[in-house]
């Protein structure tokens, strides 16, 4: 059977055989053409030096509590900083950490003071970085003090206090509030 323009019509079975052979040839070629390549890529991260301070509800870091004394005592009493149970201070290992402490709400006459609630009477106190309470370890107002640590995930503030009872203090609760600034 003749078609226009030199084309011949082939029986349907012949066309199907040609398609099948063509597909088989492609499969054979593609099977041999598979190539396995191995490449690498980089994975990286940068850890910045820093610290994390968690104080819990109210932002209270802890307290210096000199205890209860009679109004006629005239002596120097001392205590150490007790961190709040929620205080967590951690730094990247090797970070140089320092703290400074302001003069409090009642600073005067070159010393920090606790003031009696509802009154104006004062009990002077000083802060130190060592339990020895020697003059070399005294923390001045806003003085940067280095904090040494061995466990970067659990850093303690080296903070001790000494109050001078005058022997003439009226009964009452004497308080002050300090602000600690941590720097790294």
Automatic annotation (TrEMBL):
Q: Which UniProt keywords apply?
A: Signal
Signal peptide start and end residues? 1-35
Q: Which SMART domains match?
A: SCPU
Q: Which InterPro entries match?
A: Spore_coat_component, Spore_coat_U/FanG
Tell me where in this chain the Spore coat protein U/FanG domain is found.
Answer: 38-181
Annotated protein name in UniProt: Spore coat protein U/FanG domain-containing protein
Which organism is the protein's source?
Cronobacter sakazakii (strain ATCC BAA-894) (Enterobacter sakazakii)
């Amino acid at each position: 059977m003749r078609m226009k323009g030199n084309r011949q019509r082939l029986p349907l079975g012949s066309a199907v055989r040609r398609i099948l052979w063509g597909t088989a040839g492609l499969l054979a070629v593609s099977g041999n053409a598979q190539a396995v390549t191995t490449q690498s890529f980089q994975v990286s991260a940068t850890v910045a030096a820093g610290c994390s301070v968690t104080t819990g509800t109210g932002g209270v870091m802890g307290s210096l509590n000199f205890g209860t004394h009679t109004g006629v005592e005239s002596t120097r009493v001392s205590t150490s900083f007790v961190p709040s149970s929620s205080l967590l201070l951690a730094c990247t290992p090797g970070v140089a950490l320092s703290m400074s402490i302001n003069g409090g709400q009642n600073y005067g006459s070159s010393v920090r003071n606790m003031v009696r609630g509802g009154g104006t009477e004062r009990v002077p106190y000083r802060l130190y970085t060592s339990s020895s309470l020697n003059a070399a370890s005294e923390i001045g107002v806003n003085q940067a003090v280095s904090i040494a640590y061995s466990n970067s995930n659990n850093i303690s503030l080296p903070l001790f206090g000494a109050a001078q009872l005058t022997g003439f203090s009226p009964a009452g609760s004497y308080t002050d509030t300090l602000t600690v600034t941590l720097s790294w």
